[in-house]
Amino acid sequence: MKSLTIRNLSKTYFDVHAGANVTAVRDMSLEVPAGEFVSIVGPSGCGKTTLLNMIAGFIPHTEGEITVGGQPVKGPGPDRGVVFQSWALFPWRTVLDNVAFGPKMRGVGRAEREKIAHDYLALAKLSHAAGRYPNELSGGMQQRVGVVRALANEPDVLLMDEPFASVDAQTRMTLQEELTRIWEQKRPTVIFITHDVAEAVFLGNRVVALSKGRVLEEIAVDLPRPRVWDELNEDGRFKALCGRVLQLVRSA
Ligand SMILES: Nc1ncnc2c1ncn2[C@@H]1O[C@H](COP(=O)(O)OP(=O)(O)OP(=O)(O)O)[C@@H](O)[C@H]1O
To answer: Where does the record place a coiled coil (predicted)?
Structure first.
């Protein structure tokens, strides 16, 4: 697993509609030690997705530096896995082949990549769906497969942009519990963007609140793990942390 360092990072877009520059990320610095789970919250337009896209190497930054394991990010790479809200599985491949696709691209042989895929599907309690096609799965299951597919690449850094936003509340809670469980076993470094304050606190070791392209405040989440909703729903510390993060987001 690798650390992530963001130093004095800025991103300015040229907005063709307004005919002017827009600064989406402004002199931002953030240190994420290897294996940490960081949740990122902030109001719409504060630069969350821009930040994630720069870490992924999908878009260039204007100023500053991003390093993963000490190496500067110059473009996309297998050390960083990305999961978006729209999961876009390959519809013509089974669940197993979707999950095995990343290892296949890395040149892993069939037997080995299928073993990797089976292991990750088992971790996410999806073994029964291995032979199905995406259109035979519910939205929540597709979302889980999307997460598992990213994990099967064993990235050092996992970048997640509101991956559970479009599933029902019940499924979302299950996905959150599964993600924390898998993270505890594999310990990738995670950057998780969400608008959901309770989700940010439930998942993270730390919640970073952004405002207008800058880090507004960082809040350590010292709740014990494993975290399960039945316990945390009643936990005074959890509620207090959610209250604090909500206040920050509203003031941002
Ligand atoms: N390709 C682009 N061209 C011009 N401006 C852009 C572009 N992408 C984003 N922006 C602007 O940059 C700012 C930050 O956008 P970004 O999508 O990173 O915010 P966000 O925090 O992820 O928002 P949301 O929570 O609504 O997804 C916004 O003002 C947005 O309009």
So the answer is: none
In a domain, 146, yes or no: no
Assess whether the C-beta atom of 46 lies below 6 angstroms from ligand 1: yes
Q: Which residue has the tokens 């604090």?
A: 244
Cβ neighbour number for residue 12 with a 10 Å cutoff: 15
**DSSP-derived secondary structure for 219-232:** EE----SS--HHHH
Residue 105 lies in a domain: no
Predicted ipTM? 0.97
Task: Examine the pLDDT at 167 and tell me if it is beyond 70.
Answer: yes
pLDDT digits (tens, 9 = 90+) for 83-99: 887 667 899 999 999 99
Helix or strand or coil: residue 74? coil
Q: What is the DSSP letter of 92?
A: T
What is the CA(50)–ligand 1 centre distance, in A? 6
Indicate the number of domains in the chain: 1
Question: Which of 50, 199, 208 most suits a substitution to test ligand 1, by most atoms within 8 Å of the C-beta?
Answer: 50
pLDDT for the residue numbered 87 = 62
Q: Is residue 192 part of a domain?
A: yes
CATH of the domain at 34: 3.40.50.300
